[in-house]
Amino acid sequence: MTVGAEFYGQQYPPEATPRAIRAALLTEEAGDFDREFRQAMAEATETLDLTGVLALLRRWQRVAWSSQDDRAHRQMLRNAEQLASGGNITTESWNVTKARLGL
Known about the structure:
By secondary structure, this protein is mainly alpha-helical.
């Protein structure tokens, strides 16, 4: 699957390769991915165990998939930053969310 592939209006996650994942990330997240990937590869070189690399790729694949909706992903990052700094964010009930989404 490619990053742009769609299924019923939903995009597939990028391939679970370092190159595909990095290409799908927001520019400001690529540096974090690079640093973590290099560290995981260095550890795998020493331990001869790819478990950490594979876990990192699965985790970052989800981030890259989320990044495909740039506006929503950036809003999620702002919300996370605000919550981490002790702030509050506006929320709505599940019933209101379902109604807004037409569910």
